[in-house]
Amino acid sequence: MKVDVLTIFPEFFGQVFEFGIIRRAKLARIVEINVYDIREFATDKHRMVDDRPFGGGDGMVLKPEPIFAAIESLLGTSDKADYPSGTRVVLLTPQRLQLKQPVAKSFANETDHVVIICGRYEGVDERVNEVLVTDEISIGDYVLSGGESAAIVMIDSIVRLLPGALGSETSAENDSFSRGILDYPHYTRPAEFRGMSVPDVLLNGNHAEIEKWRREMALNKTRTNRRDLLEGDNGDM
Ligand code: ADE
């Protein structure tokens, strides 16, 4: 998979993709992540990327020209009807569909090229949305200063689902949400720590019992922390 990030703050991404699973996936060429400065695509004298909103109001709005130019340079067209199959252009914005596990899965399974436009909270010229963007995505009901931190969250959630990205093929299936419920509790050595013991069932080597216990614990935790997941509202698309 190729992921291209368009941002006015490329330095923001510094080392974030250089750790753990994402780093390993990059080294194994499971994913390629490129960060592009939107300013590089501005052609006016001052390389302007934003401007005041028509109609007045606070803040600045990201201009359409450099974003159109960036998409044309990456995809060879600025009409979403002509994008190659398997290509999606995402605008990160607090105003849309929330990123949930099924959304991450659909990106991991159905795309091989994702372009992510990091909006600023003041806004992005609506023509970008109308013509270029295939998916508007929010990472949650709160307002960030920009889409950069949201892009990192989104990329992480997708890359770990790509085949081969995790050490064991089953680990992602066991993640919280992947089965529509939360994860069971985990323990490691020592079996006894400051008077707190690891549940006996985990120490007796009976795998059927361990599975049953984990399932019960996962359901209990889901019932207590996220009852909505059991009521069918698990974000499935
Ligand atoms: N940009 C600003 N807030 C955001 C959010 N919650 N999700 C995605 N992009 C954003």
What can you tell me about this protein's structure?
With 237 residues, this protein is an alpha/beta fold. The protein is built from 8 helices and 9 strands. The strands form 3 sheets. Strands 2-1-6-5-7 form a 5-stranded parallel β-sheet, sandwiched between helices. Strands 3-4 form a two-stranded antiparallel sheet. Strand 5, helix 3 (101-110) and strand 6 form a beta-alpha-beta unit. The two termini are 22 Å apart. The structure holds adenine (ADE). Adenine is lined by residues 92-94, 119, 121, 138-140, 142-144, 146-147, 150.
Number of helices: 8
How many strand units?
9
- The helix-strand sequence is EHEEEHEHEHEHHEEHH
Taking all Cα atoms into account, the compactness measure Rg is 21 Å
Query: What is the residue-mean pLDDT, rounded to a whole number?
Result: 93
Q: Estimate the global geometry from the Cα principal axes.
A: elongated
Helix amount, in percent? 25-40%
Question: What small molecules are bound in this structure?
Answer: adenine
Class from helix and strand fractions: alpha/beta
Terminal residue distance: 22 Å
Major sheet attributes: 5 strands, parallel
Strand content: 15-25%
Uncertain runs are none
Strand line-up in the sheet with most strands: 2-1-6-5-7
